[in-house]
Amino acid sequence: MNRLTKAIICVAVAALMWVLPVPDGLTPNAMCYLGIFLGVILALILEPLPNSAVGLIGCTLAGALQLVPLPNGNPAGLGGSLGWALSGFVDSTVWLIFVAYMFAMGYEKTGLGKRIALQLIKKLGGKALGLGFATALADLCLAPFIPSNTARSAGSVYPVVKNIPPMYGSLPESEPRKIGAYLMWICIATTSVTSSMFFTGLAPNLLALSLIGKAPGVDAAKVAITWMDWFWCMLPAGVILFILVPILTYVIYPPTQKVFSETPKWAAGELEKLGPVTFKEWQMALMALIALVLWIFGAKLFNATMVALIVLCLMVILDVISWDDVTSNKSAWNTLTWFATLVAMASGLARVGFLKWLGAIFAGYLSGYGIFVIMFGLLAFFYFSHYFFASLTAHTTAIMPVLLATGAAVPGMDMRLLGMMLAGSLGIMGILTPYGTGPSPVYYNTGYIEKKTFWAFGSIYGFIFFAVYAVFAMFWFPRAL
Predict the structure, then answer these.
(1) Model pLDDT for residues 145-190, shown as the tens digit of each residue
(2) How far apart are CA 477 and CA 480, in angstroms?
(3) Taking 90 as the threshold, does the pLDDT of residue 461 lie above it?
(4) CB 283 within 8 A of CB 110
(5) 400, part of any domain
(6) 439 in Cβ contact with 187 (< 8 Å)
(7) Share in percent of the chain as helix, strand, coil (round to 5)
(8) Distance of alpha carbon 58 from the chain centroid
């Protein structure tokens, strides 16, 4: 399908919503806005244009047509539809995502991320299971500071790990099961787990939390979730799944070679090439430590985004990264634009009254069921509907506001708990398909794992991940929050 065809399909879907009869309870403006929103979501999936451009076009069109009514007051300091269209750019979560990309750049530029991976392989890489845990721990060490699992796993861990299988003659076309397939699956399965373990482990986590406070009738201050709130909720399930991945894979998909005496030697040689730990690496480690300590212990003094901005300023002042590095990071600025426009688009659904209307309908169907059953049903739907999405961000933007609105319409629903349950599942659902999360295509296309095996393991691990997560989400989260 070429670019023009994709664009025509997206425009046609939007136009169709404009000509359909307006249902009772909705306004013509709401239907027009819904058309634009669906067109944007479809464009995020088909990608006729870069995602950031798609979001900007959607916001601009809805703003120019003045489809979104203004709330009382104007906290952004701007008037009219322009204020709404640009509202996502003053959302603190969007800037937290942006700054976290700078953290990732610091790890890459200083070489600290590569050094961590090599040190773990040197210490644990003599046997297959130890090598599996080494690759998993490398991802875990970076996860709290790098919210792009593509940058973390595909950009930092994979470039190191990919060198190991060829050392033992394990290639995609020759003996992939010797060690290559085992390591590739651990990499993608582990990054799915670590993406859920930390508030800052995945960019859509932050987007999801920003949407909770925008649900109809919800007080944003009462549903706020801090870095530590997230950490305590996810800790038990995250630790269990993290340990389970290398062990389970070793049992059901074992490497045919168990001992790798050359791997620690290779890692030691690579570390020698890097030389002693540099001053810049120590500085980067200190910056990461400062951010982590303030996120954990400084929540009452500093917003998480303010912490990130403070650390970014320190990184620039100390020349860990330069200001030119900041301004030239296209991925970060693209992500900033993309997420800012998606936050605005998602808030528009609530402002035009669509979410309240749809939530009331769904809540009516759910009447008669207990809150426990409703929460589990919403979680299961959110998780397994990811089969239909190639982007966690698109999935979050399209589905989460609807489920939050449904929950808000149920009397007695704890919206903070429901929001955390949905948001916490985003990372682990990425394991379901070869296109489920950013790094998936990288490991899928290595050729080490057969396509049918990748799909089968996605379903098996996806179900296991969900089962473990759901138990803790239903029974542990209410105590942890």
Answers:
(1) 887 787 788 878 888 888 888 888 889 988 999 999 999 999 999 9
(2) 5
(3) yes
(4) yes
(5) no
(6) yes
(7) 75, 0, 25
(8) 22
pLDDT tens digits, one per residue of 406-455: 998 888 899 999 999 999 999 999 999 887 887 888 888 888 999 899 99
pLDDT digits (tens, 9 = 90+) for 65-86: 888 876 654 443 345 678 888 8
Residues forming a β-bridge with 259: 127
Q: Buried (b) or exposed (e) across 205-226, using 16+ Cβ within 10 A?
A: bbbbbbbbbbbbebeeeebebb
Closest listed residue to residue 381, CA positions, set 470, 284, 248, 280: 470
Q: Is the pLDDT of residue 459 over 90?
A: yes
Chain segment 249-283, per-residue pLDDT in tens = 999 999 998 888 888 888 889 889 889 999 999 99
The C-alpha atoms of residue 78 and residue 23 are separated, in whole angstroms, by 32
* Those residues with Cβ within 8 angstroms of residue 70's Cβ, 6 or more apart along the chain or in another chain: 80, 83, 84
Whether residue 134 lies inside any domain: the answer is yes
Q: How far apart are CA 49 and CA 300, in angstroms?
A: 41
CA distance 125 to 136: 12
- Give the C-alpha separation, 234 to 294, whole Å: 19
Q: Is residue 361 part of a domain?
A: no
Domain membership of residue 383 (yes or no) is no
**Residues whose CB falls within 8 Å of the CB of residue 119, separated by 6 or more in sequence, listed in order:** 267, 271
Which tokens in the block code for residue 374?
């409703």
Cα-only R_g, the chain: 23
What is the extent of the structural domain holding 114? 93-328
Q: In this structure, what are the phi and psi dihedrals at residue 259, rounded to the nearest 5 degrees?
A: -115, 135
Q: How many domains does the chain have?
A: 1
